[in-house]
Amino acid sequence: MGALHFVAPKPFARIIPKALPYPEALVALSGAAELACAALVAVPKTRRVGALASAALFVAVYPANVQMALDARKTSNTQYKAIAYGRLPFQAPLIAWALSVARTASPERR
After folding, report:
1. pLDDT of residue 108
2. For the CA atoms of the chain, what is the radius of gyration?
3. For all residues of the chain together, what is the average pLDDT?
4. Most buried residue among 25, 33, 84, 89 by CB atoms closer than 10 A?
């Protein structure tokens, strides 16, 4: 998904909360953060820090998911509504997963 922020940024820019400036820059920043987190989690030596960064990223992008759900109320597209509303409850398990990975990263590799 991180790479998709650069290939097709418009859908991501649309869900940036209206109060935040420079949505295109925020899309690029969040895409880069996603790629960095993935790389950090993939390497055992940096897994703990990558998992903690991932948890923080999941928290940071939650307002965009809320904005997407708020915007979905204005459409009759039921598939879009289902996706927009369906994303909201998945953020908590993703945060929990990331924190679990951080806790279980082997100490000798930290």
Report:
1. 54
2. 15
3. 93
4. 84
Give the pTM. 0.86
- Is the Cβ–Cβ distance between 72 and 81 less than 8 Å? yes
Rounded-to-integer distance, Cα 13 and Cα 96, Å:
26
- Measured at the alpha carbon of residue 58, what is the angle toward residues 80 and 63, in degrees to the nearest 5? 55
Spatial distance between the Cα atoms of 28 and 59, rounded to a whole number of angstroms = 17
Q: Where in the chain are the domains?
A: 4-104
* 30 and 61 Cβ atoms separated by less than 8 Å: yes
**Amino acid at site 90:** F
Rounded distance between C-alpha atoms, residue 54 and residue 101, angstroms: 10
Tokens 């820019």, residue located: 13
